[in-house]
Amino acid sequence: MSEFSRDEMKALLEEQIPPCISIYVPSHIKDGQRWQEPIHLKTMLQDAQQRLLAMDVSRADAEQMLAPALALLEDEAFWREPREGLAMFISASPDAFRHYSDNSIAIEFDPTLVVGNQFHFTPLLPLLTGDGIFYVLSLDQNHVGFLRCTRDTVEPVEVPNLPQNLGAALGEEIPEREIQGRPQNARGGEQTAVFGGFDPGIYDKERITRFCRAVDHGLHNFLADKHEPLILAGQAYLHPIYHSANSYAHLLEEGITTDTDSLPAEEQHKMAWKIVEPYFHTELSGAVDRFGQYSNTQQVSNKLSDILAAAHYGRVATLFVAEGEHQYGKFDPNTSHLEVHKESRPDNVDLVDEAATHTVVNGGVVYVMPKETMPDHQTGVAAIYRY
Fold this sequence. Notes:
CATH architecture of the largest domain: 2-Layer Sandwich
Number of domains: 3
Strand content: 15-25%
Strand order of the largest sheet: 9-8-7-10-11
Structural class: alpha+beta
Number of helices: 10
Order of helices and strands: HEEEHHHEEEEEEHHEHEHEHEEEEHEE
CATH class of the largest domain: Alpha Beta
Number of strands: 18
Low-confidence stretches: 174-199
Largest sheet: 5 strands, mixed
Helix content: 25-40%
Distance between the termini: 37 Å
C-alpha cells in the first residue's frame, strides 16, 4: 500500500480505463460505535458489482475487476491496522487497483461509492494541501532522519540514497572515532550515531557544507514534483549551512534548532506542527486575498467551463472548491464543450472533481473549504490562473 501523493494520482490517471470505481470507507467512531470497515467495504463492493452489471459489464469481467478488493477482505492483518479511513480505486485496467489509508483527523470521509468514467479524488485532496502532509528533515552529523507528517501523524520514511550520517556521506576521510554507534529514536528504530555532541570549532565548515549538499542530493529525487513544506530540525549551526546547500523550493525558513541526536520523532513532530500550522493558514489566507485583488481581471474565474479548460492545460495555479460541491456532466478539453447534467449518471463525471484532479496533477494547489469561506460566496468553484 502506497501513500497518496501527486505521483500516485498521476499513476492512477494512467490506469483510468472505464469503468472506474472509487470507494471511500470511514472507520472512526460515530454515535458511540466503531464502524466495521470490512463489512461496509463488502457492501460497497456488492453495490459496485450491481452498477457494473447495469452498465452492461459481463458478470465475469465485473468479478475479475473486483477480485483484488474482495481478496483484501480476507486479510486479517490489514484490518488490524489503525486508520481513520480507507480509499480504494479499481478500473478495467488490471494494474489500477490501489488503496490508501487515511490516518489524519484533518479530513473525514463520508461513505462514498462512485462508478463511472473517471476516478473520484476530491475527498483525498486535503492530504495534499491545507492541513495535509509536511516533512521533517532531522539533521545531525551522527544521524540523518526523514519524517512524513500530518497534523496528527508522524512516520519515518526510508529515502533511497539519503546518507545516514556524515561518515556515510563523505566516506573514509572521516576518522573512525566519528562513526561509533549508539541507538537513535529520530527514525522510529535503532540507528547508528556517534557518541557526544558537536563543537563546530573542531570541524572544517567546508566538510559540513559537503555533508549538507550530499543530504540535499539524496532527497532530490524523493522531493521532485512535491509541494509540501519541509522543516529542518538540527543544531543551530547547521541551519544556515543546510539552507545554502538546499535545492527544495518549499524548505521553510523557520526550523527546529535543537540537538536531534536523541530526540524522539514524536517530539520533533510536535515542534514542527507549531511551525507549519500558521504556514498552512497563511498560504490559504494569501490565496483568498490574491483572488480578491484580481477579481476584476482575467487572472481569476468562477466559471466552471473556463476553469476546466485551464486545469487541463496547466493554467490553474490555485483552485478553491466548496465542501460537498458536485456538478455532473461531460467536458471535452479539445473543444471546451461542456454538458451539465442534473445528476450523476454512468456516462458522466463529477466536473468539479475533474477540475481539481487536473489542477493537482499539473502542479497547482486545491483548497477544499466551507462555502461561506470561499473567495466568491456565490459559486462552489473558483480559480486563480498562472497567466
